[in-house]
Amino acid sequence: MPSPRPTASPATRALAVQVVALVFVVLMLRLGVLSGLPLLALAALQGALAASFAAALRAASWWLAIHLFFLPAVVLCAQLGLPTWVWACGFALLIVIYWTTFRTQVPLFLSNRKTVASLAEALPQGALRVLDIGSGTGSFVRCFARLRPDSQVLGIEAAPGPAWLGRWLARKQENAKLERGDFFDADWSDFDVVYAFLSPAPMQAVWEKACAEMRPGAVLISNSFAIPEVEPEGVLAIPDRRKTKLYCYTIRAEQTRPAVQTHRIWPRKSKTRRA
């Protein structure tokens, strides 16, 4: 079976779009079309062109914002006259926080308390083993562990900054654990629930790994992002400001390897559940 890791390279496409937009602006400047415009206006034009090109290539919406504001932000920051070490520290901080976001296409999303509380109430009572993949600062792990003290909750996060912060914040919760690593390298077979708040990009790979490793009756829950062409077992609608939806997928026997335990974690009663 091929590796379930996302293979797309959005950063490469983004760089190409930025370069093309910049070359376009430079050519128009040399032709005299844009003569007399201040540097910030030229940067804004480059950003608008880059965002337009990215939209034509069907890039994710958050990439459009990056393209739009990247060069203008660079120009504005350059005019502040800050020392070099400030830029070096800022760059290092971004790396620590976002790490491989450019490759995985998974931004830092944090689960709100109402979402975690609704899920903790909806899941069957009793001790559960729960895995949060891409756990960020551990907002889901800590909240769920507090609401369901009989359960064991593990979070895995690749970016060092959020992982270290989450581990420190959860240091006094015995049933909450956070690790830094690649959740695709972890073994999901021992968990009743796998929770994901990622992005549309890796969901197909996440589903393939869940089907390959999770036992029948276990459930994969995706915050906001449905798995393409897979019907969820249920949809839990959260009454929060962003109208969050949790897509719940029960692993079936025909999707997995033979397993001893076959109890169901998510009931089959209805297609949509409301908190």
| Category by helix and strand content | alpha/beta
Tell me which CATH architecture of the largest domain applies here.
Answer: 3-Layer(aba) Sandwich
How many helix segments? Answer: 9
User: For the record, what CATH class of the largest domain applies?
Assistant: Alpha Beta
Helix content: 40-55%
Describe the structure in your own words.
This protein is α/β, with parallel strands linked by helices and 275 residues long. It folds into two domains: 10-81; 113-274, Vaccinia Virus protein VP39 (Rossmann fold). Helix content is 42%, strand content 14%. It contains nine helices and eight strands. The chain has helices at residues 10-30, 39-56, 61-78, 84-98, 101-104, 113-122, 139-147, 160-169, 203-213; strands at residues 129-133, 152-157, 176-180, 193-196, 219-223, 234-237, 245-250, 272-274. Helix 8 (160-169) links the parallel strand 2 (152-157) and strand 3 (176-180).
Fold blueprint:
Blueprint: H1 10-30, H2 39-56, H3 61-78, H4 84-98, H5 101-104, H6 113-122, E1 129-133, H7 139-147, E2 152-157, H8 160-169, E3 176-180, E4 193-196, H9 203-213, E5 219-223, E6 234-237, E7 245-250, E8 272-274
Parallel strand pairs: 1-2, 1-4, 2-3, 4-5, 6-8
Antiparallel strand pairs: 5-7, 6-7
Helix pairs in contact: 1-2, 2-3, 6-7
